[in-house]
């Protein structure tokens, strides 16, 4: 089976979807002729023409706002926000419009739209190229929020998202575009070509939204993670020798409570890991859910390892990033608690 | 640079406030018939002056004059008159129903009936409006059942929107009426997206964006112009300048010597201003812009100069911020009266027939209202169910919402 | 001492602040001549002139964006967003600018700005006049988020917010403007004139940001609430007869962990109540914090009573609103757990 | 309406792409000296045409001609030349430093030096710029220490912004330079707010907003015009039209026959276009607009027509989307060369002195770079501390952040 980078897998998902359904259109800043600053849409304009894949003005509001109109018309727009940090101008259209339209029109108008955006840090992008705003979406009823962690899932989830009849926020951990990253920034980059999940089938397949997956079975403690933090958690488990069960959530909303509960009831311990800032991060919801559903099975408090409650700094990237050391320390703390 | 004078802060204020005498001297009104009618494929740069004029057809003597006249038969005009009268009667009844506690909220159209009613007449089936809360004329002139409108206003068991939406925030896809958002302006850019989609699919349908004068300050207005001009979208962008935005006069939104229409000039979008209280002028301009859009010539920006005679909504009392008699002095008059007088002058209508029509329309509206109320009002029910509240957030209800519905006991 | 409505108390806070400090300016939609759709700024323009209190164009972005510029210049703008539901167009200026400016300029520029907005439901306002978006602010480092529940606090907290040198989001539960509201919508409205916390001292005083207060001491279970939910919780406690300790958080960020922890360690039980939708609401953070800090004292899971994960409906307002019945049921469940 | 032709979707494309021959025939360049210089208190509606012209001073023969000429002495022009040359040398060194891994990122100004350097010269102490990442000329022409700029770029221990910001996102309050945001356009409206504050306080200082052509599509651009025009704020609103926005040409942002300057017309804001590669023209227009603002006459919108010769940033390679030699064919030439040639023609400069100045400037820059590197680079440190990361989120560190700092072990 061909090995692909995550960029290639994402591109492939759009390619396959555009081939299967004329209503799929792709646009965003620098997305057309150039193929996107991360190259995720490279070649799509040449292949499908500029009515199917095109450059947009620098207006995230306009990109999402027109996409809402297109989706209501009957298209399936899959738009790109250049960095998740730049989604705020589109936030009103996402929250007040895309997420509400089906409900308020009693189903007359729907928004089968995907908003892709690179998320997370690890590339020395400073405060405006490193943010992880997923919690700002998970709080919004009517949205689905997806965070893939590898090329296989990225392709399957993106196709599923494009085929979904509700608006989907698709957050792509940019530090994973070219290879898995476990937080050891001083080690050479592993390419996806050397990772099993870099195997991406040709053609159409989906990974269903709303289903988590156990990445590493274990008995000692459940780790809830997504995106880059899946690899950081794997490294932390390996380095501490703690037999953690690592769950890759993949979809944050709707979340896969069954998988989470089954694991925590088994291990009796839980650590939640994300890059986003701590307070009111999605980890808070996970922690709340776990203790609501597994209270009598918990042998230690659910702990969170996250980015600090500061803007994402430039020079102190590796002090900010929740790397394997910090995760490992918390794993130990939870085991000793 | 040592003898610099201090700066001072400028806040625009209307010519008069409560207690003062209404004064519209600074509203320049060109005579009817004075503005040219360019061909629809005119180069936008050749008609920049139209952004500072007002296209008018009906003159003071109730005649239809000039190059924008002569597009509608008497029969069509009589139908238009009936639409406006129906909207006005509907407004009066619903306004009263709100005062009686039968619903939470209402917004009327008094003085602005021509804008939506005449525009609707120029559209074709399949075209899509993205209206604000002050374009119910699109529904009435488009034949949407008034019963559905009332049931929505009452949030009763027959409410097509299942109690989820505020009164007056209609949605009627089959009638070319997009779901109204309570958030101002958001739909102006969605209209452009819809139009882009129509062009992408090589369809023949166009879209229409609607926005109030005050709401042009919102960001979505700008995005709409950016995207419409970039992709030459088949869209008509309508600005209803009714002089007021709740309590603020249009000077807070317009910016000095600009006009709302002139916002199009920086984008190479043809921009027209029209007498919004002149049914014939509105129709003529609408037709021109709709033809442009449908001929793949791109967007048009239209400013309708009109006046909000009533309160902003049932939560508002305009006597707090403008003279009570201001509306009587509005120089463009009343749209119903003007069309009525024109038809009388043309010999196609009379005072008697008008009075009779008024009575007929009112009794029809009242009959429908009775029927609507038999399905419930917000005050007394029956209402859509709590189950309806949990449905339709997503296509399929996700597990967490299903759990919540269970907890809610429904 | 004079009794005031919450509207009057808020107006008084601005009045006092404008008198004491020339740099305090007030603006927003309909805020100047008319005095605001809820009348919170009535009379301020007449008293202080239109350079100090004025009407703004309908652009929440512009209101907050210009306020950021004014604050950086050295003023203390206190702006109004007409309803919290309309803050989304300003969200980018709040998150990317107001909240970040001190940090990214290393203190050269600061944003001593207050953004006031009516929040919450209970007035048949439907989905766009009823939202409670506090969690969208509590996730943003650099912001403070305040929710007063009564006239006394509203005045003192607003003066403190205006005097604070960081941007403060000031959420005013609109259902409390004219009287406390316990969720019994079929009962006549109690005016503030008949409530002790309607007593509002003349002149200047502050209620410090970041300090919670115990509204009802109790031993059985701790209830964490703010805004309207304080009264709903009081009613639930009274009606169930459960000896709940009700904490009014007042400031969500920075939160008063000491008060929370002291209470939960004492009662061993905790219920969190808010109007906002459940998933990723601020209640999730509170729940997570409580179990992180009080795990070994908890005798039952921390439970949340909140708005449902749907848009705020119009007709079904009282099915949506977390009223005393729902809170009471959860109090009982937690006591029986 | 039965024989309707299908619509079609229009996506603007530049005249040429890689492989093609550069073609600027559609860029209409009026001759130098041809555009009138109105008095600063001109009524905005009387100069609408200026939004479609280009004000130019330096002609093909390197003479300064027309009503906008004659404002600067040779000495001042020589200083301006030195500023532009310094910026260019600085850019070259930092660009290289990035390639050497000494920092993460850099953005250069090649071709656009006149815009920020000449504008800065027309400002007074206390005026505040709200710049984008492509106006470092404001700092260099304003005397901000280059050492501070470099230490910030290197995120080293002497970085005035403590490692928190990206390279080139400077902040220098004392030098009238607002903290740059990585989010495009947000500061355009903040500039208006600053200017409003200055007017409210009866100060004499003005503000200056800066934005790129592509970024005019953002909402903040619109808000800035709305608020500036409503309150007649003492602000100059600068649009740097360098033809490109990363990979998209200005046609994706401009909208047909509009110009960026013409966006002002709908707001009654005087709008000028100027040759951005002409130091004298930029200065003259800047001075005119700044005087207007300082005389309480309100905002001015200026479009600088220039060209981004280099890549968008060190992460970009323009050969993927435009012909490699396009910049050589840019009809407005190179700003440094044009000013140099003018000064030579005026007898105030020579090729030799120019070459010598270049060498001098380069060695000064290199010396400062050495010093900066002695304080560390991003690659090799020393850096600001992890403690610095936790400071300054709020004026006082709140308890939850203090706990986190403890957990972080710093
Ligand atoms: C985003 C947003 N901001 C504010 C409001 C509150 N609001 C409702 S209507 C209105 C005035 C609108 O004025 P205009 O656009 O002129 O329309 P008109 O009511 O005159 O038809 C305001 C401020 C809102 N609904 N949405
Ligand atoms: C809100 C936002 N959206 C997108 C970006 C990504 N981005 C950075 S620079 C740029 C192009 C800007 O072009 P222009 O405004 O013409 O300025 P120039 O680079 O040409 O000076 C883009 C899209 C951003 N920084 N912020
Ligand atoms: Mg209006
Ligand atoms: Mg540019």
Describe what you observe in this structure.
The complex is a heterotetramer, with 2 copies of chain A (337 residues) and 2 copies of chain B (410 residues). In chain A, the strands form 2 sheets. Chain A has a 7-stranded mixed sheet, sandwiched between helices. Chain A has 2 domains: 6-198, Rossmann fold (3-Layer(aba) Sandwich); 213-336, Rossmann fold. Helix content of chain A is 35%, strand content 17%. The radius of gyration of chain A is 19 Å and the shape is globular. Chain A is of the alpha/beta class and 337 residues long. In chain A, α1 runs parallel beside α7 (151-163), α3 packs parallel to α4 and α9 (257-267) crosses α10 (282-294). Chain B has 12 helices and 7 strands. The N and C termini of chain B lie far apart (74 Å). The mean pLDDT of chain B is 96. By secondary structure, chain B is an alpha/beta fold. Chain B has a single domain (44-309, 322-379), classed as 3-Layer(aba) Sandwich (Rossmann fold). Chain B is globular and about 65 Å long. Chains in contact: A-B, A-C, A-D, B-C, B-D, C-D. Chains B and D meet through α5, α6 and α7 of B and α5, α6 and α7 of D. The site of one magnesium ion has 7 residues of chain B, from β4.
What's the SSE blueprint?
The complex is a heterotetramer, with 2 copies of chain A (337 residues) and 2 copies of chain B (410 residues).
Chain A (H helix, E strand, L loop, with lengths): L5 H15 L3 E5 L15 H5 L4 E3 L4 H14 L2 E5 L10 H8 L2 H4 L9 E6 L14 H5 L5 E3 L4 H13 L4 E6 L39 E4 L4 E5 L3 H12 L3 E5 L2 E3 L3 H11 L2 E8 L4 H13 L8 E5 L9 H4 L3 H13 L1
Parallel strand pairs in A: 1-2, 1-3, 3-4, 4-6, 5-6, 8-9, 8-11, 11-12
Antiparallel strand pairs in A: 5-10, 7-9
Helix pairs in contact in A: 1-7, 3-4, 8-12, 9-10
Chain B lengths: L73 H26 L13 H9 L6 E3 L6 H5 L4 H8 L32 H15 L6 E6 L6 H12 L4 E7 L2 E2 L2 E2 L1 H4 L16 E5 L3 H16 L5 E6 L29 H11 L5 H24 L11 H5 L8 H9 L3
Parallel strand pairs in B: 1-2, 2-3, 3-7, 6-7
Antiparallel strand pairs in B: 4-5
Bound molecules: thiamine diphosphate (2 copies) and magnesium ion (2 copies).
């Amino acid at each position: 089976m061909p090995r692909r980078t995550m960029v290639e897998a994402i591109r492939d998902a759009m390619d396959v979807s555009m081939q299967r359904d004329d209503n799929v259109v792709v646009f965003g800043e620098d997305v057309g002729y150039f193929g996107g600053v991360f190259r995720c849409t490279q070649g799509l304009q040449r292949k499908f023409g500029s009515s199917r894949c095109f450059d947009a003005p620098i207006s995230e509001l306009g990109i999402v706002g027109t996409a809402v109109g297109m989706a209501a018309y009957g298209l399936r727009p899959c738009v790109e926000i250049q960095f998740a940090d730049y989604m705020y101008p589109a936030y009103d259209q996402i929250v007040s419009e895309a997420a509400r339209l089906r409900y308020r029109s009693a189903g007359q108008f729907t928004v089968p739209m995907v908003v892709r955006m690179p998320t997370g840090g690890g590339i020395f992008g400073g405060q405006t190229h490193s943010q992880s705003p997923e919690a700002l979406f998970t709080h919004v009823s009517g949205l689905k929020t997806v965070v893939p962690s590898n090329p296989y899932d990225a392709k399957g989830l993106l196709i599923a998202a494009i085929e979904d009849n509700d608006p989907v926020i698709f957050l792509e951990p940019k530090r994973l575009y070219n290879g898995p990253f476990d937080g050891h920034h001083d080690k050479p980059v592993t390419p996806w070509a050397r990772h099993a999940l870099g195997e991406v089938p040709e053609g159409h397949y989906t990974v269903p939204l709303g289903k988590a997956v156990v990445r590493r079975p274990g008995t000692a403690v459940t780790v809830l993670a997504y995106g880059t933090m899946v690899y950081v958690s794997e490294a932390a488990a390996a380095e501490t020798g703690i037999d953690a069960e690592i769950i890759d959530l993949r979809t944050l909303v709707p979340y896969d409570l069954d998988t989470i509960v089954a694991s925590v009831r088994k291990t009796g311990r839980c650590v939640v890991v994300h890059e986003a800032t701590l307070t009111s991060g999605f980890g808070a919801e996970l922690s709340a859910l776990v203790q609501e559903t597994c209270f009598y099975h918990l042998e230690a408090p659910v702990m969170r390892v996250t980015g600090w409650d500061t803007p994402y700094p430039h020079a102190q990237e590796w002090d900010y990033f929740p790397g394997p050391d910090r995760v490992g320390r918390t794993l130990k703390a939870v085991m000793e608690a | 640079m040592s003898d610099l004078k201090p700066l001072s802060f400028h806040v625009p204020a209307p010519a008069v406030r409560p207690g003062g005498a209404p004064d519209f001297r600074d509203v320049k009104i060109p005579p009817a018939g004075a503005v040219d009618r360019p061909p629809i494929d005119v180069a936008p740069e050749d008609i920049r002056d139209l952004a500072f004029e007002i296209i008018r057809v009906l003159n003071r003597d109730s005649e239809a004059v000039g190059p924008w006249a002569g597009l509608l038969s008497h029969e069509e005009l009589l139908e238009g008159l009936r639409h406006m009268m129906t909207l006005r009667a509907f407004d009066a009844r619903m306004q009263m129903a709100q005062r009686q506690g039968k619903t939470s909220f209402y917004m009327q159209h008094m003085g602005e009936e021509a804008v939506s009613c005449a525009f609707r007449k120029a559209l074709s089936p399949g075209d899509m409006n993205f209206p604000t809360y002050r374009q119910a004329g699109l529904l009435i002139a488009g034949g949407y059942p008034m019963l559905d409108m009332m049931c929505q206003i009452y949030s009763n068991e027959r409410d097509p929107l299942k109690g989820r939406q505020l009164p007056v925030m209609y949605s009627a896809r089959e009638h070319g009426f997009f779901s109204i958002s309570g958030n101002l302006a958001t739909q102006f850019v969605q209209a452009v997206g819809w139009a882009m989609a129509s062009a992408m699919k090589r369809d023949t349908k166009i879209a229409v964006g609607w926005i109030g004068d005050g709401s042009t300050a919102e960001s979505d207005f700008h995005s709409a112009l950016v995207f419409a001009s970039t992709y030459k979208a088949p869209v008509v962008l309508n600005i209803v300048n009714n002089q007021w935005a709740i309590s603020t006069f249009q000077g807070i939104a317009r910016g000095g010597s600009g006009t709302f229409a002139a916002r199009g000039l920086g984008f190479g979008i043809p921009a027209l201003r029209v007498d919004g209280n002149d049914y014939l002028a509105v129709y003529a301009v609408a037709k021109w812009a709709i033809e442009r859009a449908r001929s793949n010539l791109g967007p048009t920006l239209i400013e309708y100069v009109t006046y909000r005679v009533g309160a902003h909504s049932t939560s508002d009392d305009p006597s707090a911020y403008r003279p009570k008699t201001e509306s009587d002095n509005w120089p463009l008059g009343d749209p119903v009266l003007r069309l009525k007088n024109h038809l009388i002058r043309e010999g196609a209508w009379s005072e008697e027939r008008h009075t009779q029509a008024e009575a007929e329309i009112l009794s029809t509206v009242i009959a429908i209202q009775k029927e609507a109320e038999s399905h419930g009002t917000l005050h007394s029910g029956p209402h859509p169910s709590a189950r309806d509240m949990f449905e339709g957030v997503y296509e399929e209800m996700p597990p967490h919402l299903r759990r919540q519905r269970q907890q809610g006991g429904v």
